[in-house]
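quick q for whoever's on today - can somebody do inverse folding on this one?? i tried earlier but teh output was garbage lol. tokens:
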């Protein structure tokens, strides 16, 4: 496979013309379905219940299943998800990037149980967790989400947003043209790939909004599925619309994108202090907790610890550059991935690193340090 630095301009342009570009990025970073520690602990059934390449479903506890995406084989799901099955009902987690992704997860549920589906829950509004909702809607399945999810979906992905997205793309194309260094150009190219993937996902989808908004003031909410309970909680951080699902009886947590395991987190919509506070809380959970992250392999509390240290490193580097008087635009480009995070995919430099540095600069400015 071509490495990014050996691609000609022409092959780059050809590859960015479609979703293939994002797939090309993803293929550079194959991730296993579970981290080594989890695999060796024997909690996760190594034999998938269902496997379509782009995602596989594994049993992670009695009545609890994780859907893990493999971006190197396709982008139908893109995010992870899962489902919880009791004797009376089931709860699906995530609407994924496409109806095909949601359909795959629903079919896997039907392999193990015919119980009615109480709801499908979107952990937040982002396209890779909601654009497949239409499949659930067509099955008459209620879609639950944080009360801010539907309004944010309309605002960001709704009618009339094509123009805003086209403007953003034009802005990134200009950054590629005007880049002052090869590094800056590579960062901008990655941003363009991600932007194109988002806009193409949205353009090819029917916006299917959650029809049961959950108010954070009324959470946590316990959903009894018959012999097993799911607890829905709210921790805004990655976006203003984050929900998590806990299964206390099985020590399993679905934290949505509050956990990126083994890759740099997307912070473009984030409240960093809220997010870091959520991670503090998650690290106080039982040491045997199994996390089904929004992205990346299944993990235990070590996945939370790693993401906290990614944020610490971003904060340390931002503080050093801020104190040295480096302007924010330059600091956003200058962040250096340390050796210990070298293998971590960065799906788009601006949405992950750039946004974090800008927010940290803002905190430093208002914090008066
Ligand atoms: Zn996501």
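ok took a stab at it. sequence:
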């Amino acid at each position: 496979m071509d490495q990014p630095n050996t691609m000609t301009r022409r092959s780059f342009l050809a590859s960015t013309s479609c979703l293939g570009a994002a797939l090309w990025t993803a293929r550079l970073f194959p991730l296993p379905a579970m981290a080594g520690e989890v695999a060796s602990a024997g909690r996760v059934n190594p034999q998938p219940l269902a496997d379509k390449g782009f995602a596989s479903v594994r049993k992670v506890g009695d009545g609890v299943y994780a859907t893990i995406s493999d971006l190197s084989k396709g982008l139908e799901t893109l995010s992870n998800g899962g489902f919880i099955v009791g004797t009376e009902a089931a709860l699906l987690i995530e609407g994924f990037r496409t109806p095909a992704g949601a359909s795959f997860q629903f079919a896997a549920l039907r392999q193990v149980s015919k119980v009615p589906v109480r709801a499908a829950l979107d952990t937040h509004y982002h396209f890779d967790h909601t654009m497949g909702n239409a499949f659930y809607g067509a099955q008459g399945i209620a879609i639950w989400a944080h009360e801010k999810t539907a309004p944010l979906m309309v605002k960001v992905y709704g009618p009339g947003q094509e123009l805003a997205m086209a403007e953003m793309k034009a802005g990134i194309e200009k950054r590629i043209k005007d880049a002052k260094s090869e590094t800056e150009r590579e960062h901008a190219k990655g941003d363009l790939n991600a932007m194109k993937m988002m806009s193409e996902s949205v353009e090819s989808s029917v916006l299917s909004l959650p029809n049961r908004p959950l108010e954070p003031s009324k959470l946590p909410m316990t959903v009894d599925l018959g012999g097993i309970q799911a607890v829905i909680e709210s921790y805004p951080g990655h976006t203003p619309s984050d929900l998590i699902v806990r299964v206390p009886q099985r020590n399993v947590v679905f934290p949505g994108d509050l956990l990126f395991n083994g890759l740099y987190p997307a912070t473009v919509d984030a409240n960093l202090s809220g997010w870091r506070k959520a991670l503090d809380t998650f690290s106080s959970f039982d040491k045997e907790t199994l996390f089904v992250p929004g992205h990346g392999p299944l993990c235990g509390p070590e996945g939370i610890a790693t993401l906290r240290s990614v944020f610490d490193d971003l904060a340390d580097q931002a503080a050093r550059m801020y104190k040295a008087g480096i302007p924010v635009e330059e600091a956003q480009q200058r962040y250096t991935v340390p050796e210990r995070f070298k293998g971590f995919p960065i799906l788009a430099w601006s949405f992950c690193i750039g946004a974090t540095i800008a927010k940290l600069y803002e905190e430093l400015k208002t914090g008066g340090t």
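fwiw The CA atoms of residues 183 and 333 lie 8 Å apart. also Residues 1-21 have pLDDT under 50 and may be disordered. so keep that in mind when u check it
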